[in-house]
Amino acid sequence: MKSEKETLADLTRGDFPLFSSDQGSTQSLIYLDHAATSQKPHQVISSLQNYYSYYNSNVHRGAHQLSARATEAFEHARQITASFIGASSSREVVFTRNASEGINLVARSWGDSQLGEGDEILLTLMEHHSNLVPWQMLSKRTGCKLVHVGITSNGELDLDDFRAKLNERTRLVSLVHISNTLGCCNPIFEVASLASRHGALVLLDACQSLAHQPVDVKSLGIDFLVGSSHKLCGPTGIGFLWAHEELLKSMPPFLGGGEMIQDVYLDQSSWADLPHKFEAGTPAIGEAIGMGAALNYLKVIGLENIQAWEKIITEYLFESISRIQGLIVYGPSPKVHQNRGPLMTFSVEGLHANDLSAILDTSGICIRSGHHCCQPLHRHLGVTATARASMSFTTTIEELETFTGELTSSIDFLRSHS
Ligand SMILES: Cc1ncc(COP(=O)(O)O)c(C=O)c1O
């Protein structure tokens, strides 16, 4: 099924060294693990290479020209990040190592100083471990209570359960935008409106949405947002936390050290202005610059264009997979669920997801198997492991055709040998 018109995948694949046709042995690789980490275009790789080759220097410290250049590029990356999510100012963007660190920052700083016994945090059953474990640790430290919202039989957030569990003791609702397992896109505006009526803050884990649809913090009505660069075509080792300036101002520092201080005495210190108050030590400079290049790259392609192409390929995948006998798909169908993430999590009766993944790998097809850092969700679904194929704007219909063909023969092979 090759259309005459060039698709977004056709237009962009050449930017990615891994997908370009002169890669010899990797030529036939089909990468369907974008939800775990995205591939990097040469625009990002060369921004990292430029920094390390021509202006490697520490930021905010030196008076020399290299340091000034590095500082300018580093702070420019912060502005790009702020504008990518519609923040009012780059002071609202704190660079972290990844999304997990952003959530830990909020738990340690805001949570430790604000919460105690009698307070509640509302989470959901579909959260990634990154959005469960920091709150469990906070609950042990402060005595606050964790309450979990369920999911419907269709694999969507149970809004009735959310309404029932939200109350005047709820201080924070922390939830995922697009589930990395179910693929559902949660109704954040509605959740945030309800939460604010009860005076609760909302933290959005946008790891799986930022690369797939436009996200605007102001129109969503949220209070915190975390993201990871490596899921956005950017380098590993860098991510960010966004929060309203007043909220960040009211929060104590997370880690102590250089960069985050104004004045240091032997027995006390004062803190630097936002956002540096939360960035102790030498940051991941090249990686932040690389993340800026990645966000610019996604912006030039256009998040609306990405969303439109990924809708087509997600519907195509769901349609072609529906012909395979004994396959169980988790999460709502893209036909009925708006803004669904471009991924499909599934299991096959009688077969282990790891066996499926290993056998597909022999045909050069990379999918994920396991619990995808969502053990409580998997327990709720009654499975220990599932397989997941996750796509990006670079995914072609031809790749999905090959994948479904190979999946069908892998299932037949494993069944005939079990
Ligand atoms: C929904 C979701 N939240 C949080 C994370 C954690 O991201 P990181 O490991 O980059 O901190 C992931 C990564 O898989 C994710 O998919």
Topology of helices and strands:
Blueprint (H helix, E strand, L loop, with lengths): L7 H5 L17 E2 L10 H13 L10 H20 L8 E4 L2 H16 L5 E5 L8 H10 L2 E5 L9 H7 L4 E7 L11 H10 L3 E5 L11 H4 L3 E5 L10 E5 L1 H6 L10 E4 L4 E3 L13 H17 L1 H19 L5 E4 L12 E6 L4 H9 L3 E2 L1 E3 L4 H7 L4 E5 L6 H20 L2
Parallel strand pairs: 1-13, 3-4, 3-5, 5-6, 6-7
Antiparallel strand pairs: 2-8, 7-8, 9-10, 11-12, 12-15, 14-15
Helix pairs in contact: 2-10, 3-10, 4-5, 11-14, 12-14
The structure holds pyridoxal-5'-phosphate (PLP).
Question: Summed up, what is this model?
Answer:
This protein is α/β, with parallel strands linked by helices. The protein has helices at about 10, 40-55, 65-85, 100-115, 135-140, 160-165, 190-195, 215-220, 245-250, 285-300, 305-320, 355-360, 375-380, 395-415, and strands at about 30, 95, 120-125, 145-150, 170-175, 200-205, 225-230, 240-245, 260-265, 270, 325-330, 345-350, 365, 370, 385-390.
Folded structure, characterized:
By secondary structure, the chain is α/β, with parallel strands linked by helices. The chain folds into two domains: 8-39 and 303-416, Aspartate Aminotransferase, domain 1, CATH 3.90.1150.10; 46-299, Type I PLP-dependent aspartate aminotransferase-like (Major domain) (Aspartate Aminotransferase, domain 2), CATH 3.40.640.10. It has 14 helices and 15 strands. The strands form four sheets. The protein has a seven-stranded mixed beta sheet, with helices on both faces. Helix 5 (133-142) links the parallel strand 3 (120-124) and strand 4. Helix 2 (42-54) packs antiparallel against helix 10 and helix 12 (353-361) crosses helix 14 (397-416). The radius of gyration is 22 Å and the shape is globular.
